[in-house]
Every structure is written in structure tokens, then in C-alpha cells.
Design goal:
The complex is a heterodimer. Chain A is mainly alpha-helical. Chain A has one domain: MetI-like (MetI-like fold). In chain A, about 75% of the residues lie in helices and about 5% in strands. Chain A contains 13 helices and two strands. Chain A has a two-stranded antiparallel ribbon. Chain B is mostly helical. Chain B has 14 helices and no strands. In chain B, helix 1 (about 5-35) crosses helix 13 (about 240-260). The two termini of chain B are about 15 Å apart. In chain B, about 45% of the residues are buried. Classes of the chains: A mainly alpha, B mainly alpha. At the A-B interface, helix 1, helix 3, helix 4, helix 5 and helix 6 of A face helix 1, helix 5, helix 6, helix 7 and helix 8 of B.
Chain lengths: ~290, ~280
């Protein structure tokens, strides 16, 4: 059915999407690259000429760079560990026969649909506030001293908030994967006398491996660029300044565009490293 | 898995799952409770909160003080606008890739996916300055365009995976029966494609509604959607728990309801078809 005529029609139908995405990718990217080689301070003199790789060197040698890399890794790593482990357990639980399964699923998935600014502010004020928050009341009720969550335990608090948002995503995807598991295989292994743990270890887990990889890669891409949760809770204070947040501050708060753009280029490179792995998995699926 | 289980086992599963489910849902439940309290009661201990009077006051105050409906309509216009514009551009593209695949289809799909991986912060300044130059800063049109572009790869991908499931034999059969191209598209393909298009719209409205990088950085007062409106509560004055709760409930309720209908599409859309 693919005649010459339909081929050129097909190409024509694809053109708008391709051109738009090409423009969306190339124009800002080229500008970011361009600015990254300039000393450019819009509020203090504007374009002050070419500086070579100066911005790239200054960005990594500034005192806030390595702490930002560390915070980024801790948040991404922490959230991944929590969501993958709890998500797997939760998916296994939700797969069991029970009453009201549909409703429980709805309850578990709900946090994913809460906009990031709402979950950030709700956790910060209604739960983690050291005076009036729910957790403070809870601690008081047990005679314990309430924790100053976002200042004294800023990273665990932030990881908790973000994990709450992403646990539903991991659970939902892993549950979908578990449900596609061949039940005959499980039954056969049961008849062969395999215990619960061995069934999980040798049948369920290998089956889930691909879904877990997908969860890890997709979440990593989103988590590397979390912004609103930090913006409304700590605004980058108390050691929660991630790479994304640091670049945001350089570009929009201190209006050092050259420096921020160099940071942006680093962020793009970092995201691309993760993306390559994800694309390989998705690409394999295209052939199937 | 429809395996027989003892009632006792089922009882344990049910209890455990409901406890975990309620625990995860609790923060949402709690802001619903707080939104129906007075500011003075909202900061009391949980027991006192539950036993105090219930009132609609906060909902009215939020509308009066901060013009909630303006932000709400901004959110609706931006989320719907960007999604529909994206669909308009993506349907022909996904259509041609699914039905007239060429050697380059796979490469184009992968490349589209790769644009989604571009971290927003990396191109923040170019977009920001471009918006100022074009007069798009703090306009709904500007956000519609940006959100359309960031979601376009997901839209194309989702549509592609749906379209690819439409069997080609049906088209051939229709053609054998003497259907013209117009009839083929109108009576055979469109009805089969509509569920997929609807699912794609649903998921992308949700994603656009909750997007909180560009909406925070590219709006001020005029075009601010709910994400930015809620963020204005991060520097509060005086008692505000009940008001923040009411505003939050109103901001998440519509999408929570839509989201519950889109569980399946969520998996497919966000994993680019890698998990189905």
C-alpha cells in the first residue's frame, strides 16, 4: 500500500511535527551554547565579550558546585531506592486477591496527580511545620520533641516528599508488569514445591527486571530536573540546592547568564547519558 | 491470577492493602478536612481539628482574595490549548508513521523521544529572553506553545503506539469493498482511532495541568495557572492553613478525577510503550 504517492503524503504529514521539534531543540540549544562562551550579565553591563571555556571552569570550581552534585545524587538515589523497593512490595500486595482492590489502587495512585507545588507546600506546612504541622502534633502526643523537618533534616524531608509523589508511578508500572506475568508459570513452580521467596526470586523478579529498569531510567530523567518541590519548600537552602536549582539561581536570580548556560550544558550532557540507556530499551521494544 | 485463596488470607491482604492505601492517601485526605475548618481550628491538634465545626468559609475567602477562578481558567485554557494543538500536529505525524512506515520512521521516533530528555533548565535563558522579545512572557499563548512542544514527543509516541494496533487488514477489506480513501478514513479508521486519541488527550491534559517549571518561570500575575498561584502561598502571612488547603483541594480535584480514569494510559504514555 506504500505507493510513491502515499510516501510523499506521509512525509508531508510528518513535516510540521518534525520542524517544530527541530526548532524547539536547536534554537535554544544553540543559544545556550553561545551564551556559555560569553561573559554575559544582562543587568550589569550586558554582553562583555567571549571568554572561551572560562564559564565552564568557573561553574565546576565554584564552592556550590560539588555540594549541588551531591544533593542531586542523594535526592535522585534516595527517591529511586525508596520508590523501587516500596513500589515492588506494593505492586505485589495489590496483585493479591482482596476486597475493594479498585479503590485501594485509586488511593495509592492519587499522589501522582497532585501538582508539585501543592505537594511541596502541603508537606511543608500542614505536615512538617515544627509548630502546627501534623507530624509535630503526633510527636507531641507521644511526648517527643518535634523535628524541624525542612531545616534540620532537609534532605530526608525532601526525599520523603518526592518519594510520595513518585511511589504511585513506580507501583503502577510494576503492577502492570506483574499482571502480565504468566500465571501458569507460577502454578507450575508451586506444584514443583517452590516457596514464596523462591517464586519471587526466580520468576517474578526476573520478569520485573525490564519494568524496574524503565522505572529507574524514566524517574531519573524527571528527578534530575525536579524544581517546584525545592522552590516552594526550602528555596535551595539547608543543603538542598540541586544542579537544576543552582543553574536556575545563576540564570534568573543572579542573572549571570554565561555561567548559568555553562551549567545548563553540563545538565544536558548528564541527562543525555541517562537518556542513551533509556532509548536503547525503548528502541528494542519498537522492533518487537 | 484467579487462584483460590482462603478467606483468611484474603482478609489479611485486604487489611494490609487498605492500611497502606489510606496511609499514602492520608495527606490528601487531611487537606480536604482542613479546608473545611476555620483558620483558628486548622492549626490545632488532629483530634481538636476533627471535633471542631465544619465550614465552607475558606473556599469563599480564596475566591474573594485571590481570584481563584482566573487562575483556574488559565490552567484550563493552557492545559487544553496545549494538548489540542499538540494533537492537531501529532495526529498526521503519528498516522503516517504507523501506516506508511519507512526506513527512517524508527530514527525519527527515537529522535523525538530524545528531545523530551532535554532538561528544561538547560534552555531556560534562551526561552526566557525569547519570550520577552516576542512579548510572550506572562501570556497564556506563550505557555500553550511551550507546553505543547514539551509534550509533543509523548503525544506522537502515544498516538503511534495506538495507531499501530489498528490492523491493516481492515483497511484492505474496506478497499476491496470499494471504499474511497475519504470513506476509509472517515468510517473505518477514525472510529478505531478515537479511543487512542481520547486517552492521549486525557494524559496530556494531566501532564500540562501539573507542569511546574515553565509555568513558574514564565508567568507573573496575568497568565499564572494554578501551579504558580499555589506557589504564591510559599511566603505566607498569618494563619493560612485552611485557605491553602481549600486552594489546594480546588487545584487538584479536577485532575485527580481525570487521573483515576487514565491509569492504563498513564503507564503506556509515560513509558513510551515500553511497558504495557
Amino acid at each position: 500500500m506504500a505507493t510513491q504517492h502515499s510516501r510523499s503524503a506521509a512525509r508531508l504529514m510528518m513535516t510540521p511535527a518534525v520542524i517544530l521539534l527541530l526548532g524547539w531543540m536547536l534554537v535554544p540549544l544553540t543559544m545556550t551554547l553561545y551564551f556559555s562562551f560569553k561573559k554575559y550579565l544582562p543587568l550589569r553591563g550586558g554582553d562583555l565579550g567571549w571568554v572561551g571555556f572560562d564559564n565552564y571552569i568557573r561553574f565546576v570550581s565554584s564552592s556550590s558546585f560539588w555540594p549541588a552534585v551531591a544533593s542531586t545524587l542523594i535526592i535522585v538515589g534516595g527517591v529511586l531506592i525508596i520508590t523501587v523497593i516500596l513500589g515492588t512490595l506494593l505492586a505485589l500486595l495489590l496483585d493479591q486477591p482482596m476486597w475493594g482492590q479498585g479503590i485501594v489502587r485509586i488511593l495509592v495512585i492519587a499522589p501522582f496527580f497532585v501538582m508539585p507545588t501543592v505537594s511541596g507546600l502541603v508537606w511543608k506546612n500542614m505536615f512538617m511545620d515544627p509548630n502546627n504541622g501534623f507530624l509535630a502534633h503526633l510527636f507531641n502526643a507521644f511526648g517527643a520533641e518535634p523535628i524541624q523537618w525542612l531545616s534540620q533534616a532537609s534532605m530526608p524531608s525532601l526525599i520523603m516528599i518526592v518519594s510520595w509523589q513518585w511511589l504511585p508511578f513506580a507501583t503502577l508500572i510494576l503492577l502492570t508488569a506483574i499482571q502480565s506475568l504468566d500465571s501458569e508459570q507460577i502454578e507450575a513452580s508451586e506444584m514443583d514445591g517452590a516457596g514464596w521467596f523462591n517464586r519471587f526470586r526466580f520468576i517474578t523478579l526476573p520478569h520485573l527486571a525490564r519494568a524496574i529498569t524503565v522505572v529507574i531510567l524514566i524517574q531519573t530523567i524527571f528527578l534530575l530536573s525536579i524544581f517546584a518541590e525545592i522552590f516552594v519548600t526550602t528555596a535551595g537552602a539547608f543543603g538542598t540546592k540541586t544542579l537544576t536549582y543552582l543553574i536556575f539561581q545563576r540564570v534568573l536570580e543572579s542573572q549571570n547568564v554565561g555561567l548559568g548556560s555553562a551549567g545548563g550544558v553540563y545538565a544536558i550532557i548528564l541527562a543525555n547519558i541517562v537518556a542513551i540507556f533509556l532509548m536503547r530499551i525503548v528502541g528494542k521494544n519498537l522492533d518487537a | 491470577m484467579a487462584r483460590a485463596v482462603t478467606p483468611r488470607r484474603k482478609m489479611i491482604n485486604t487489611t494490609l492493602a487498605w492500611s497502606v492505601g489510606l496511609l499514602i492517601f492520608f495527606p490528601i485526605l487531611w487537606i480536604i478536612v482542613l479546608s473545611f475548618k476555620t483558620e483558628g481550628d486548622a492549626i490545632k491538634t488532629p483530634i481538636e481539628v476533627l471535633t471542631s465545626v465544619w465550614t465552607f468559609e475558606s473556599y469563599l475567602v480564596v475566591q474573594d482574595r485571590s481570584d481563584y477562578f482566573k487562575h483556574f481558567s488559565n490552567s484550563v485554557i493552557i492545559a487544553m490549548g496545549s494538548t489540542l494543538l499538540g494533537i492537531l500536529i501529532a495526529v498526521p505525524a503519528a498516522w503516517s508513521m504507523a501506516f506508511v512506515p519507512s526506513k527512517r520512521t524508527r530514527g525519527i521516533l527515537m529522535w523525538m523521544l530524545s528531545t523530551k530528555m532535554l532538561p528544561a533548565v538547560g534552555v531556560l535563558y534562551p526561552i526566557y529572553i525569547g519570550f520577552i522579545k516576542l512579548g510572550l512572557l506572562d501570556t497564556r499563548l506563550g505557555l500553550i506553545i511551550v507546553l505543547m512542544l514539551i509534550n509533543l514527543p509523548i503525544i506522537v509516541w502515544m498516538l503511534y503506539t495506538y495507531f499501530r494496533e489498528i490492523p491493516g487488514e481492515i483497511l484492505e477489506a474496506a478497499r476491496m469493498d470499494g471504499a474511497t480513501l475519504r470513506e476509509e478514513v472517515l468510517y473505518v479508521l477514525t472510529p478505531m482511532a478515537i479511543p487512542g486519541i481520547a486517552s492521549t488527550i486525557l494524559l496530556n491534559v494531566i501532564l500540562a495541568w501539573n507542569e511546574a517549571f515553565w509555568t513558574l518561570n514564565l508567568t507573573a500575575a496575568k497568565a499564572a495557572p494554578l501551579t504558580a498561584f499555589i506557589a504564591s502561598y510559599s511566603s505566607p502571612e498569618g494563619l493560612f492553613y485552611a485557605k491553602l488547603s481549600a486552594a489546594s483541594v480546588m487545584a487538584i480535584a479536577p485532575i485527580l478525577i481525570l487521573g483515576w480514569f487514565s491509569q492504563k494510559q498513564l503507564v503506556r504514555g509515560l513509558t513510551f510503550g515500553a511497558v504495557k
